Amino acid sequence: MRLLCLILFCCALFAKGGYAQKSSAVRKLEQQRKEALADIEQTNQLLQETSKSVKSSLNRLNLLSKQILSRKKVISLLNQELDEIEKELMTIQGEIRRLRGQLCEKQENYGKSMRGLYKRHSAQDKLLFVLSAETFSQSLRRIRYLQEYADWQKRQAKEIIAKQQEIDLKKQEMEKTRAEKRALLGTRQEESKKLQSEEAVQKEEVQQLNKKQKDLKAELRKKQKQAEALNRQIEKLIAEEIARAEAEARAAREKAERAAREQAAKRKSSGGNTADKPMREERVAATKGGYAMTKEERQLSDNFGSNRGKLPYPVTGRYTVVATFGEQQHSELKYVRTSNSGIDIQTAPGADARAVFNGVVTRVFVVPGYNNSVIVRHGNYLTVYSNLSQVYVKAGDAVSTRQALGKIYSDPEEGQATILHFQLWKEKTKLNPLPWLD
């Protein structure tokens, strides 16, 4: 009985372990699907907070496009899950066929042995079989053989029971997998219906915008002028900082040279007995015409660069990127071409802009259309946070990663749409922020 329990336990453990290993791919896909659904829910909430006016129309359309892409991703992941489950079903069915074959073989062997036992092995036959031995040692071997044969028959009976139990476990596993498959098919059908509905809404909004082409183009021109004004201001402030740092470096060099001449004169007059004073470390730019950095700033710059792809998003709460970096042709509106020096991140009303890394606030300024802006320097990298209604910091403040810099402006005329414009620069060069964010 102990042997039977041990066999059943091992079979159950094997079956459970094999299933977990096979379904790890399904669990991973399921987690990705949950994340995509969370993105959809987040985008849907932001859509509800954005009005349908011309001013915010592109943001709405971008949110809808993002929602549709996420929905398509969900459906794609569901298809992959179904493929994995189908593979599991085929594997389980193969294992059941193999186990049944083994069971039939054991049952057949056991049946043959039992039939032979009934024909030949009465108690008298066994006794004659032992007594007919030529020597005493041969009699002992025959007794041991009969015992081993009886034990083998018992083991065969137990193994048959255990194999049947294993088949039953596999059948239960297969039914569970089939139930998962049916549930996923139903979920895929629901997601496909939602996708069709969202594509219909997107089509309707595109048609409405096509009717308001003139107003939309005027609004885009206005936004572009505001963006250009912001960039000019940022470039001006960066140039001023570079010039200031270079002036400080030049002044430090001149002071060091004067000090060196004075020390040389003192050594000469005192016969070389005057000790040299320690020199202050010079500011050095990483590139020609770049920002001259101190030792601490060079280390900060290196640390910032080594954290590419790990920086937190510069907003609190739920968010989604509604406009990406660079020049782009709109996928739905052929007459719309946009240019962005950073990224636009829409978040919930009341959200704060937060620093993506340790640094120093160098400027706080105002540009029409972007409200308040804050520049944070991280060595020769700079991050820009625009469209703030309130600012919590001032120039010269040291800030840490994730520290709140100000409240993002919520437009009351646009359904409280709350959008942060975020830029990343290295020296005088604009960088795409997305590859830097985690």
List keywords for this structure.
438 residues; alpha+beta; eleven-stranded antiparallel beta sheet; two-stranded antiparallel sheet; 7 helices; 15 strands; elongated; disordered N terminus
Descriptive account of the structure:
With 438 residues, the chain is of the alpha+beta class. It is 60% helix and 17% strand. It contains 7 helices and 15 strands. The strands form 3 sheets. Strands 3, 6, 7, 8, 9, 10, 11, 12, 13, 14 and 15 form an 11-stranded antiparallel beta sheet that branches. It has a two-stranded antiparallel ribbon with strand order 1-2. The chain has a two-stranded antiparallel sheet with strand order 4-5.
List the helices and strands and how they pair.
Elements: H1 2-22, H2 24-48, H3 57-120, H4 123-131, H5 136-211, H6 213-269, E1 284-285, E2 292-293, H7 295-306, E3 319-323, E4 326-329, E5 337-340, E6 343-347, E7 352-354, E8 359-367, E9 371-378, E10 381-391, E11 398-399, E12 404-408, E13 410-411, E14 417-426, E15 429-431
Antiparallel strand pairs: 1-2, 3-6, 4-5, 6-14, 7-12, 8-9, 8-11, 9-10, 10-12, 10-14, 13-14, 14-15
- Beta content comes to 15-25%
Helical/strand content category:
alpha+beta
> Could you list the spans in which at least 5 consecutive residues all have pLDDT below 50?
1-22
Spatial separation of the terminal alpha carbons = 58 Å
Largest sheet: 11 strands, antiparallel
> Could you report the average pLDDT, rounded to the nearest whole number?
81
What Rg is obtained from the alpha carbons, in whole angstroms?
A: 39 Å
Which word captures the global form?
elongated
Number of strands: 15
Helix content: 55-70%
Order of helices and strands: HHHHHHEEHEEEEEEEEEEEEE
- Helix count, DSSP H or I runs of 4 or more residues: 7
